[in-house]
Design the sequence.
């Protein structure tokens, strides 16, 4: 199974993060085979770390929680919230294999469906996939978020590689699921390729 682990940092923890970063990186080095993507979330101006996002393989939620709770960042008290959700990769490309571009920024699009999201999704699935195919050049990773049994889609997750946030927002504005009101909420946040 694949999992999204999204952590939100407490305000004012930049110095603590810096003091813990070597231990954190050493911890990450213990999981090379299961880590698909790993990196920090930043404020829009790219000046302050506000959390982290990882896409990673574990057999179940308990194993994913055991992993993130053992991270030195977690142990140091840097995170004020940790969100773990099942994720299904739509592309078979990992961070180590992704060809980086010069002069671009990465953004994470994270969204959850409305209560009737499944009904809204069904007639738009082909249009959604075609749209993603048309914009394949800016999509690093993508895939649905699922409830833990994997039987129901509850949202979507994408990592984009674009010129700026305006390009990410323009892409998302015309995405068929988004345009049709599938999602209850969406965040578009600055992310950077981190240590894997």
Sequence:
């Amino acid at each position: 199974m694949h999992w999204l682990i999204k952590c939100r940092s407490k305000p004012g923890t930049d110095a603590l993060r810096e003091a813990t970063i070597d231990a954190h990186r050493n911890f990450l080095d213990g999981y090379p085979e299961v880590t698909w993507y790993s990196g920090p979330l930043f404020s829009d101006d790219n000046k302050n770390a506000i959390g982290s996002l990882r896409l990673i393989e574990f057999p179940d939620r308990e194993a994913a929680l055991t992993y993130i709770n053992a991270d030195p960042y977690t142990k140091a008290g840097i995170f004020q919230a940790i969100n773990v959700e099942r994720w299904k990769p739509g592309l078979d490309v990992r961070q180590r294999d992704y060809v980086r571009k010069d002069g671009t920024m990465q953004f994470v699009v994270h969204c959850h469906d409305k209560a009737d999201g499944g009904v809204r999704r069904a007639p738009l699935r082909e249009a959604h996939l075609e749209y993603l195919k048309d914009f394949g050049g800016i999509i690093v990773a993508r895939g649905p978020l699922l409830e833990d049994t994997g039987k129901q889609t509850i949202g979507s997750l994408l990592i984009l590689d674009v010129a700026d946030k305006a390009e990410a927002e323009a892409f998302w504005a015309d995405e068929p699921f988004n345009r049709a009101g599938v999602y209850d909420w969406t965040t578009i946040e600055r992310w950077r390729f981190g240590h894997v």
